[in-house]
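Appendix B: a complete holo record

For completeness, this appendix reproduces one full record from the ligand-bound portion of the collection. The bound molecule is adenosine-5'-triphosphate. The inputs are the chain sequence and the ligand SMILES; the output is the full three-dimensional arrangement of the complex, encoded as structure tokens. No fields have been trimmed.
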Amino acid sequence: MTSPPLLEVRDLTVRYPARGRRTPPVLAVDQVSFTVRQGETLALVGGSGSGKSSIAAAVLMLRRPESGSVRFDGQELTGLDERALRRLRPALQPVFQDPYGSLSPRLRVHDTIAEPLRVHGRWDPLTGPARVRELLDLVRLDGSLARRRPHELSGGQCQRVGIARALACDPRLLVLDEPVSALDPSVRAGIVNLLADLRDELGLSQLFIAHDLALVRHVARHQVAVLHHGRIVETGPADRLWDAPGHPYTRELLAAARLTA
Ligand SMILES: Nc1ncnc2c1ncn2[C@@H]1O[C@H](COP(=O)(O)OP(=O)(O)OP(=O)(O)O)[C@@H](O)[C@H]1O
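The structure of the chain with adenosine-5'-triphosphate bound, as generated:
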């Protein structure tokens, strides 16, 4: 049985304004539609400049789209003001590519993970520390790391801290913008497996953005959308795209993936 849609994106269009007279506006995302269902992962895969990050920013309402609809749990986000969005943000959490850059260098791991609870008024001094330990446990990090700062952690450990921070307020959807691209290949599989476990254990929906079709094959047993020049050119289960790519651009991605595999 298919689960209900949690995120429904319809005809999403993102355009960046002209920078001066000589640079025309950029149509980064052109009428893109997709659905992420409860407890499922949708992978968006495409090359550099295909519009992946612009879609992530629009879904998270960090950049308002020019047109189109973004419905989250039945609620249209595009018309909401900042106050209404702030109430929704705990349920809709980002994880970014650069594990060091996305953590504050001054904060210890404990405070990084506690921060969203504090910001959203959910920090309880009695139960908070145990919640931080629970979150470290969820991302398979030893509790002894709680006192460290980012420069005392590996890239993989930093990304796990970023995921723990995203999980702190019990989100329903993670928007993962190239979450393993900056990591050493030897630690990528660990993060990919962790995300799959979190999806299955917590029923957590995920929009997983990547440029590598080989990686996506391990991530999204459910559905993959191939993005090219701001448009979705093909969708299907990862194994089907791998074995029988229909669109010439998917074949290009496949050839690149096979070269590096
Ligand atoms: N702030 C901006 N102003 C103008 N153009 C932009 C801006 N951000 C992105 N673009 C352009 O929009 C298009 C899509 O960019 P986007 O970053 O969304 O793609 P991407 O698939 O995430 O690329 P990459 O993998 O290289 O990060 C590109 O042509 C890019 O140059």
